């Protein structure tokens, strides 16, 4: 499944609106303007993972547990850094929500 996910993540970043980084995603979840999907890397720090999943649950936002590590998630977005948490605000031309069965 992740082979379908990576190209869609990059397309969402390019054509839609994606927030990268745990602090920014947590701030967004607390603001009330909720994303359509939250993605958490498998090796995200436990306290960050717990807080993001808790806030997402309160906001009725689906959470996708990315099977790869944060370096792999960063590579999926074609970024030269680690990404432990990301949020899809607008999917743009991507089918990320459809691929993950979120819609």
What does this structure look like?
This protein starts with a helix and ends with a helix. A four-stranded mixed beta sheet has the order 1-4-2-3, with helices on both faces. It is 47% helix and 18% strand. Helix 2 runs parallel beside helix 3. It has helices at 2-15, 22-31, 46-58, 70-76, 96-99, and strands at residues 17-20, 37-41, 63-66, 85-90. The protein contains five helices and four strands, in the order αβαβαβαβα. With 103 residues, the chain is of the alpha+beta class. It has a single domain (2-91), classed as Ribosomal protein L30/S12 (60s Ribosomal Protein L30, Chain: A). The longest helix is centred in the first third of the chain and has 14 residues, at 2-15.
Give the SSE string: HEHEHEHEH
Give the spatial strand order of the biggest sheet: 1-4-2-3
Question: How large is the radius of gyration?
Answer: 12 Å
In DSSP terms, counting alpha (H) and pi (I) runs of 4 or more, how many helices? 5
CATH C-level class is Alpha Beta
Tell me the major beta sheet.
4 strands, mixed
The CATH topology, please? 60s Ribosomal Protein L30, Chain: A
CATH superfamily: Ribosomal protein L30/S12
Q: How big a fraction of the residues is strand?
A: 15-25%
In CATH, the architecture is: 2-Layer Sandwich
Query: Care to count the β-strands?
Result: 4
Oligomeric assembly: single chain
Structural class: alpha+beta
Which overall shape is indicated by the principal axes computed on the Cα atoms?
Answer: globular
Distance between the termini: 17 Å
Q: Helix amount, in percent?
A: 40-55%
Are there runs of 5+ residues with pLDDT below 50, and where?
none
């Amino acid at each position: 499944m992740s082979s379908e996910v990576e190209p869609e993540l990059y397309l969402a970043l390019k054509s839609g609106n994606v927030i990268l980084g745990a602090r920014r995603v947590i701030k967004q979840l607390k603001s009330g303007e909720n994303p359509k999907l939250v993605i958490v890397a498998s090796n995200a720090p436990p306290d960050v993972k717990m807080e993001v999943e808790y806030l997402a649950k309160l906001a009725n936002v689906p959470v996708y547990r990315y099977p790869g590590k944060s370096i792999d998630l960063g590579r999926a977005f074609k970024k030269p850094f680690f990404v432990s948490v990301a949020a899809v605000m607008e999917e743009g031309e991507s089918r990320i929500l459809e691929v993950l069965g979120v819609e």
